[in-house]
Amino acid sequence: MEASEKTTAVVISCSDPRLADAADAINAQFKKELGVERIIPLHRPGVVGLFSDSSAVHRPSSLDSLASANTTMEDVRRFALEEEIAMHLLFHRPDVLAIVAHHDCLGHPGNDEHQERSAIIAASVLRRRMGRYCFSGRIRSATLEECPNPGWRVKMLD
Ligand SMILES: [Zn+2]
Question: Which of 113, 120, 111 is nearest to 48 (CA)?
Answer without folding.
Answer: 120
